[in-house]
Amino acid sequence: MINHIFATCLMMAAQNYAIPPSVLVGILHVEGGKVGQQVRNTNGSYDLGPMQINTLWTKVLAKEWNVPRAKAHRLIRDDACTNVNVAAWIFRRNWNEAKSLSKAIAWYNSRTPHIGYKYRKKVVKAMKRHNLVPRSKTSTPTQNYAFIEKVE
User: Fold this and answer.
1) Domain spanning 4-147 has what CATH number?
2) How far is residue 30 from each of residues 5, 59, 111, 119, 124, measured CA to CA in Å?
3) Is residue 66 a contact partner of residue 147, using CB atoms and an 8 Å limit?
4) What is the pLDDT of residues 54-79, one digit of tens each?
């Protein structure tokens, strides 16, 4: 699912936005999108690319990047590095607001508590399935994923 170039982009995005790379990988596995993909939602918006960025973000990003909204849409949908960087940017905004890694994972999908909670459980399950979280409670400070205890 992850090629070397995309893995490099993901690691750079994680570093630029100070996000544990394992969280971005967990989200990627749950979202399961592909470069060039757009999936229509029931509200008429679309989810774009590998990290399934909702088109509701294209207006904000077009203004931020000083490009037409259609170009922002194409970049998010068709460029894997742009897509994962936007995902990291969105995640960091959520984390800054929520002040909780656990809540930021939920909010990546939905701020509706019961929907976000289910999503967070899926992400943590994907992280565990791919050995991206420590299995013991004696992890080092750099591996501290205490939020998992709240999810299970």
Assistant:
1) 1.10.530
2) 20, 25, 17, 8, 9
3) no
4) 999 999 999 999 999 999 999 999 99
